[in-house]
Amino acid sequence: MKETLTIVSGSSHPAFAEGLAEFLQASVTKRELSVFPNGELRARILGDVRGKTVVVVQSLFGSAGAQLIEFALLIDAVKRGFPQKVIGIIPWLAYSLQDEQFRTGEPISSESIARLIDALKLSELILIDLHSLRTASYFKTQTRVIAPSEIFKDMLIGRYTENTLIVAPDDGARTRAMELASLVNGRVLVLKKVRDRQTLKIEYGKVKGNVAGKDCILCDDVVVTGDTLVEAATLLKESGAKSAAAFCTHALFIKGSSDRISRSQIDEITVTDTLPITKAQQFDKLKIVSAIPAVGRAVSALTKKGSGL
């Protein structure tokens, strides 16, 4: 894009950072990451960032605590190089599913994470399709949340017909489903899901609506175990649906989930590249669309405005 824009990548998802740099035609500032003998992380910025807009990219998953510390160290190191501004991009935000106090004595984890990130004093922060917009409200940092409609728009328009039904697998996905449906003036069905807070077991009630012969598209923010999507697709097929596809922004795919989805009633599932997806996690029904163009457009808008969101 411009010589004044540069990307710094954390260690969690360098392919995303490199893709973003290519999309923006921006440089990549090299960094050095290592570990002290006592196990503590060490970071160093190897390029000149003086007067530049620096975008630091780090998905937080798996060893999220260490990745968050690494993110903080990289931002501090960048700031000591006197940049014009520092933008943080977190494609997947760890603990974002824990956006309320589910049981007495528990923290609101996503609010705690927001406070830690606020302490970094970023110029702006870009996040992608949060489980709940409640999490965005926990941040005092100026925050731009990329909506799923910005990522899946072309794909949804390309496959939508009058026979298509947009399905929210639970009430929490209602807003997401309505937003996607608005792109094609489509209809929305919300399934009734109950999850036991202790065992996390999922149960669905009967479908309230006619899905017979319909091409159903389930939409959700994240697939972890795949339980929600698998059970929802099974219910839809048993209720007469012609097909059951799924659009999910984030693919955590914990062990065994890929195989379960592959063997399920789900005909096709489309996810994004906000998280690394290994070859072992891939299967025939899986399609991957990049979130990088949507993020890149958001970064471009920020740099053109100069400040604010």
Automatic annotation (TrEMBL):
GO annotation, cellular component aspect: cytoplasm; ribose phosphate diphosphokinase complex
GO biological process: 5-phosphoribose 1-diphosphate biosynthetic process; purine nucleotide biosynthetic process
Family annotation (SMART domains): Pribosyltran_N (SM01400)
EC main group: transferase
EC number: 2.7.6.1
Any one GO molecular-function label of the UniProt entry: magnesium ion binding
Cited InterPro entries: Pribosyltran_N, PRTase-like, PRTase_dom, Rib-P_diPkinase
Record has Hydrolase as a keyword: no
Keywords: ATP-binding, Kinase, Nucleotide biosynthesis, Nucleotide-binding, Transferase
Reactions that this protein is recorded to catalyse: D-ribose 5-phosphate + ATP = 5-phospho-alpha-D-ribose 1-diphosphate + AMP + H(+)
Residue span(s) of domain Ribose-phosphate pyrophosphokinase N-terminal: 6-119
Classification via NCBIfam families: ribP_PPkin
Protein name per Swiss-Prot or TrEMBL: ribose-phosphate diphosphokinase
High-level lineage: Bacteria, Candidatus Chisholmiibacteriota
